[in-house]
Fold each of these.
Amino acid sequence: MSGACFAEVGNDVLCLDLDSSKIRMLEAGEIPIYEPGLLEVVRRNRAAGRLHFTTEVERAVRFGTVQCIAVGTPPARTVPPTSGTCSPRRGRSAGT
């Protein structure tokens, strides 16, 4: 999701995932999660040539000048505060 948003504002983005089935899905114009409006953002930015996907770690490391690491969204609201997930009440990382 973060990569699609970075591409939406005009950045050239290469997203890395070690799960090749997710990368194949993304390259085929589908998304492995549901987020309202995300599919359209991904498709629009793929078509514009700003959003790319890979399973190749070395390629991803060499790409661009900024590296962002995003992790999976917890499946439930009961995640312990030490996990570093975002806390909407405080608007910052719960681990800081």
Amino acid sequence: MLLLNRWIDADEAHKIGLVNRVVPRGELLSRADEMAGRIASHHPGALSAAKQSVVLGLDMVLGEGLALEKRMALKLGLPRCGASS
């Protein structure tokens, strides 16, 4: 860790929430490819909106972030939460 001037291993990184998953070294590339494939399978507009929401939402309070999320969903033509099909 940069500010503590020490290295941490994968298990400690997982324990403190720095990473959300730890895989054996031999599985790393195949698991990364699987994850990249899942991401790439989504509509490019949805991926772009998600990235924009993260960047723009960093400087927002919760209410503004939720409003941004709603605008992005409407822009993509997604159904409203709780709306019946």
Amino acid sequence: MGEFRTRDRQAITSCRTAGYDPCDHFAGIRKKVDLGSGAKREIVDIALSRYACYLIAQNGDPSKDQIAFAQTYFAVQTRKQEIIEKAAYGG
């Protein structure tokens, strides 16, 4: 958990440095989760925007499957958008 928090802080710093309000991209939420006994417990979590997910992926360890997948996903989506814009604007 501590490792995620470090990445999260790095992503929040990147967001702020880029001129965006981190509160718009990293929203603290509370939600109920099921326990094995059938009971529910409220936990604190963070809802991430797409931009926040991108920042976390960029600050993550690419040797981890989920981070590598996210980095690849964002790279592919960026390339697709570049191709679309090139076709639309005749570049």
Amino acid sequence: MLGVLPGIIGVIQRRRRSKLIHRCRRPLIGRFLIVDALRMKFRELKLRKDPDCPVCGTHPTVTQLIDYEQFAVSGLPHRSRHR
């Protein structure tokens, strides 16, 4: 069951991308797709934009990507790779 699930999600994502490129129908912007693979059911939730969101809100404070490697190790005590 889990072996085919990434393929199903990938096909859905590819189809959504094609719709965006060809401007067909309405995109999934503002909606959240939930896939219940056990019951083979799909649900859509409508999402409202949060005006206080630090990324996409009215006054965004996060305006660029971070250096993930630096972020991941900052503030952590130094550990040896060999235990």
